[in-house]
Design a protein that fits this description.
This protein is of the alpha+beta class and 469 residues long. It has 13 helices and 20 strands.
């Protein structure tokens, strides 16, 4: 729908409020809110309280609270990380929208790989650098700033109901997510769910995500010896765990780098689905070194969005500095398998485990632990909420949005649809191809952030005018 003259104050409020939004993002980036085991809980508490205060400062909500939920584990139960919920009621006949983001972040990794301190927000060339500056504290700020602008501009005319859920453990697997939704269902129930945790085509072209791969992650321990032995005395006859691990991992791919695990399926791309990036875009966006070629077969979209992939994300082995002439008795490996839309994540894990056990070389012992599963998802783009989102994105960005798939995973999307089966899901984003989420030198493009806030504020304004029938 075209921009109504009544909406111009909303865009003006976005512009006026952007410096405050940027300052708030910087304050959040300074908090090392990591939910992984072994990291302290206090920064997560500090981060959640900071987000809650930002939501209170909007003046738009009747309820803003920091909450946790207990969830079941193999050993009994555990308590999830602190999350923030907020709610304001809808005017009679108006819809309610749930705004989702997460305030936890990935670990920084090795400091020497960062050009700037990971938890010190630094402005460079129109981008704010720091861990979580984009994924997903920029998503948090998008929601806060959009609500602030719409509320200040429209006042009592802001008729849309708004619920907010800012999770505190998305990067660590969202283990309390389902329990949290069940316990706080009445606070979070909505007609539309906006998940601000995805990507855009570029810094000038927005996207609505139409498909997500699922994820299977697991830790493998490959053991061949009872204890370490001298490599000169026994090398060449006794199989060490590094050799066994290399040989086992190599069976996961064929000579083209395509997944070679029987039972891991590919999806058929929809006839009217997005075409995906070109080979040239892949080379640029993924930063392939000169002479390095891409892996797999088929179009880039088929490989990134509709097919499986397997990545080794970590190996516990002696580092080069401490290397000695030793046969290692065991090696631990973390693997991440992306699951194509349409395949159950549990089924994919079973196929992966069968393959690993069948291909363990030299009789090596294999233990598989720390398994996490996330379901893939295909997003319905035919509803009235998706049409409203496309219109708001076009006007907020000044460019028509594209439907895109995402090679990554947002496992909780399927949980949201199970808990709120009638809600329409909209997956938007604040990232771009140079964001480097999860990597050193993560950053947020400020132009993308401003346009994302404008688009969401327009969406809230337009949903305020929609009468439910």
């Amino acid at each position: 729908m075209p921009i109504d003259p009544a909406e111009q104050p909303v865009l003006d409020a976005v512009t006026a409020g952007f410096p405050a939004a940027l300052g708030a993002l910087g304050r959040l980036v300074r908090i090392p809110s990591i939910a992984f085991p072994g990291f302290p809980d206090e920064p997560l508490v500090t981060s959640a309280e900071a987000v809650a205060q930002l939501l209170r400062d909007t003046g738009a909500f009747e309820l803003v609270e920091v909450r946790r939920s207990d969830y079941r584990t193999e050993d009994g139960s555990a308590t999830g990380s602190p999350a923030v919920v907020a709610r304001r009621p809808a005017a009679p006949g108006r819809p309610t929208v749930l705004l989702y983001a997460h305030h936890d972040v990935q670990p920084a990794g090795r400091d020497e790989l960062w050009d700037t301190p990971p938890f010190e927000p630094t402005l460079r060339g129109g981008r704010l650098h720091g861990r979580g500056a984009s994924d997903d504290k920029a998503g948090v700020i998008t929601h806060v700033a959009a609500v602030t602008a719409a509320s200040h501009a429209l006042g009592d005319d802001l008729g849309v109901g708004i619920a907010v859920f800012v999770e505190g453990e998305e990067e660590a697997g969202s283990r309390s997510f389902d329990a949290f939704l069940a316990e706080h269902h009445s606070v979070l129930e909505a007609d539309v769910i906006v998940v601000a945790d995805s990507d855009n085509v570029s810094t000038t072209v927005p996207a609505l995500t139409s498909s997500l791969r699922g994820n299977v992650t697991a830790t493998l321990e490959i053991a061949t010896l009872d204890h370490a032995s001298h490599s000169g005395m026994f090398g060449g006859a006794a199989p060490d765990a590094v050799l066994a691990s290399v040989r086992l991992l190599d069976t996961l791919w064929d000579e083209d780098g395509a997944v070679a695990v029987a039972g891991l399926e590919s999806a058929v791309p929809p006839a009217d689905g997005p075409t995906g990036p070109s080979d040239e875009q892949l080379v640029a966006d993924a930063a392939l070194l000169p002479g390095v070629r891409s892996i797999g077969r088929g179009s880039v979209a088929e490989r990134l969005w509709y097919g499986p992939s397997i990545t080794v994300t970590g190996i516990d082995v002696t580092d080069v500095v401490n290397a000695s002439n030793t046969l290692l008795p065991s090696v631990r490996v973390r693997v991440s398998c992306r699951v194509a839309p349409g395949q159950d994540a549990g089924e994919a894990f079973a196929a992966l485990e069968r393959h690993l056990r069948a291909h363990a070389p030299f009789g090596a012992h294999l233990a598989v632990t720390d398994v996490d599963l996330g379901q893939p998802f295909l997003v319905d783009q035919s509803g009235w909420a998706a049409r409203a989102a496309r219109s708001a994105l076009a006007d907020g960005w000044g460019a028509e949005p594209e439907l895109t798939g995402i090679g990554g995973s947002i496992p909780f999307i399927s949980t949201l649809t199970e808990r709120f089966p009638t809600a329409q899901i909209l997956i938007t984003g604040i990232e771009d191809p140079d964001t480097r989420a999860h990597s050193p030198n993560e950053s947020q493009d400020l132009g993308v952030l401003r346009k994302a806030i404008a688009a969401e504020a327009l969406l809230l304004a337009r949903l305020s005018r929609r009468v439910e029938r």
